[in-house]
Amino acid sequence: MMRKNLLRREIPEGMRPFEGAWSRDPGASRKLLSAGRPSKLLGSIEEAIRKSGLESGMTVSFHHHFREGDIVVNLVMEAVARLGLRDLTLASSSLTNVHAPLKDLCARGVIRRIYTSGLRGDLAEAVSRGLMDVPVVIHSHGGRARALLEGSLKPDVAFLGVPSCDRAGNARGWTGKSACGSLGYAMVDARVARSVVLLTDGLEEYPAVPASIGQDLVDWIVPVEAVGDPKRISAGATRMTRDPRELLIARRVVDAMEAAGVIREGFSFQTGSGGSSLAAVRFLRDRMLDLGVRASFALGGITSQTVKMHEEGLVGALFDVQSFDMEAGRSLGVNANHFEVDASFYANPGVRGSAVNLLDAVVLSALEVDTDFNVNVITGSDGVIRGASGGHCDTAAGSALTIVVAPLTRGRTASIVPSVDTIVTPGETVDLVVTDRGTAVNPRRPDLREALVKGGLALVDIEELAALAERITGRPDPVAHTDRIVGIVEYRDGTVIDVIRQIRE
Amino acid sequence: MIARLRRTMLFVPGNNPAMVKDAHIYGSDSIIFDLEDSVSPGEKDAARLLVRCSLEALDYGRTERVVRPNALDTPWAVADIQAMVAAGIDVVRLPKTETPGDIRQLEELVAEAERTSGRPAGSVRLMAALESPLAVINAYEIAKASPRMVAIALSAEDYVTCLKTTRSREGVELAEARGRIVIAAKAAGLMAIDTVFSDVADEEGFAREVALVKQMGFDGKSVINPNQIPVVHAAYLPRKEEVLKARRILQAAEEAEARGSGVTSLDGKMIDKPIVERARRVLELAGEA
Lengths: 505, 289
Known about the structure:
The complex is a heterodimer.
Chain A: E1 2-4, E2 10-12, H1 45-52, E3 59-62, H2 72-82, E4 88-92, H3 102-107, E5 111-116, E6 118-119, H4 121-128, E7 136-138, H5 141-150, E8 157-162, E9 164-166, E10 171-172, H6 184-192, E11 195-200, E12 203-204, E13 220-223, H7 230-233, H8 244-260, E14 267-271, H9 275-291, E15 295-302, H10 304-311, E16 315-323, H11 326-334, E17 338-340, H12 343-347, E18 361-365, E19 368-370, E20 375-376, E21 387-388, H13 392-398, E22 401-405, E23 409-410, E24 413-414, E25 416-417, E26 432-435, E27 438-441, H14 446-454, H15 462-473, E28 481-490, E29 496-503
Parallel strand pairs in A: 3-4, 3-8, 4-5, 5-7, 7-28, 8-11, 9-12, 11-13, 14-15, 14-18, 15-16, 16-17, 18-22, 19-25, 22-26
Antiparallel strand pairs in A: 1-2, 6-21, 9-10, 19-20, 23-24, 26-27, 28-29
Chain B: E1 8-13, H1 17-20, E2 30-34, H2 44-57, E3 64-68, H3 77-86, E4 91-97, H4 100-117, E5 125-130, H5 133-137, H6 139-143, E6 149-154, H7 156-162, H8 175-187, E7 191-194, H9 203-216, E8 220-223, H10 229-236, H11 240-258, E9 264-266, E10 269-271, H12 273-285
Parallel strand pairs in B: 1-2, 1-8, 2-3, 3-4, 4-5, 5-6, 6-7, 7-8
Antiparallel strand pairs in B: 9-10
Helix pairs in contact in B: 2-3, 3-4, 9-10, 11-12
């Protein structure tokens, strides 16, 4: 059986007949010399919300590349509230102190659920005290990429602040007045969201390429006054510490890396945020020069320190999911081997090999480590949420050598404890804990212990560290919780590794 | 033979619990708990109590524990010395020492405190900080004033004020005092300890000064920031060739001694007592003693 299409050609029954060049593209019209191209530019966030088809109960997603300087999340959510939408799921790659105004939107029912890597400040305080009816879901950066790509987390609309884009939506983060460097987290959202809205304060002439987010993924563009406060985008993130305690720990980290044999030609490394782990880069550089070796790549949050090593030939390639400072952002634009990678390439456990799996060593900070090497980076000693999961558990699982650093005590609080308040990273993925009072190897790593002892490193048992800490601080009363769950901590594979309970007043 | 190294003596404010509790972790040879200039008058008692309790409760490992009490002419000196001796301090470093009489007065206070606290007589050692032109002129007499003395130290801030000058990068204003202190210390068989370098951000200037005073013969330096410790230790670390040569010298000396001879030669050069002593010191600094 055959039928005719618009051009009167006979095609088999059951196949879709051609009905005209623009029949399936309602935005397009017949060609006319006088007609302009359909524009993605919109005049306001409200208009973008309407055009995107956002309704109550849907999911909106954001990224946190502007960190403490972010303007976009508050701006969009306030517009959403003005339009009377409710019961939304807010899925941001992370949230910071600057997002305190969301507290009211949660209380008013505009935001019903939150997915995030981290929570800090007033919003975190309020969540810890029972602000939300539905527990907040804390995910890792790799875990979020997995959830987005497998479809267990489905953003209806992604509102992505970009420092620079053209009228077609080609967007990048290393140019513009609000430059933030890599857009590695946002790139995943742009791939999966049903509708993608860019907000920008840096509209450029077409084509603004190379681009991190291509025009093929972008529905709408809203020019705004500012997407971020440049002063706070990288404020303090990578200041070089002069704290003797942090420097002592950093030196010990590099001693351990050398003794473990990972500082060799072609090795790879990542260092997290935090004074000691960032300082370790400086000592690592000196040690690499002494040993005459070069690294094949550095991963993760890229800093001016790693850029310097790259530019002097000590590190072959930089894989940058998040630029920790403006110097890293600059480098991304000019260095051919400084690559922007998205969160899936970086750390997704559900794909056929993410970059964390190729790490030889990672140095990570911790709020608390317990005698089973479990790490807490999300709740403080008072049980209040004040941190971020980030790439902690992703890199810990992937790296051949995972080093966690912490001072033995912070003020009157012990960092090495019998049992952490909240587990984010399981002890089986942590190999070494370096403190100002000694270095402890995970008993699950006899090979590492042997190498370190052979290298002349003094080691202590982690129980000794916990006991020493307790001798200094005394034994604190356990954190008082109610039974109500306010947070669910997802492991990178989507399983639940721990929950956070409401603190008892 | 030198009993212990004092390459680095780290000042720790006696009223800062976070620093007092684990000042030894940075690996300085000595810690100086300061009850004097870094503690304001209103906090003198609190600092004394904090340091005393810390000395009694905490294990500082093999690090030498030194206290800088308030000067003898202040109302706090006697209580400082009694409390520190009772708490087990290793060394008392007297500030503003001007004359041998100051050391003898300190020695009496320390001996009395040893008696009342039940510590063995003579167990507490003494150091003097020389902070004035008169002190520098008296350096040798001060060094010889008590058998408990282990070192004399230059304290430059007050000293340059007395000279009516300021500290310079080159340190020309300190040259004479440094030279005299090294000579007096060595003549008395003590160690000479150099003054602090206050600009903790100036790593290069610090390293230059350390190299200078090491070459002059100082045994070590007072430091005010733990970040300065690795710089000093690196400067005092003998080179590999020096260590190898020192080992061979000591071996040759031991063989000579076994033969009953005081003098021998190595590579055609005479090996005598001063050369052997220098070799011993090299190995000590290399951590092999």
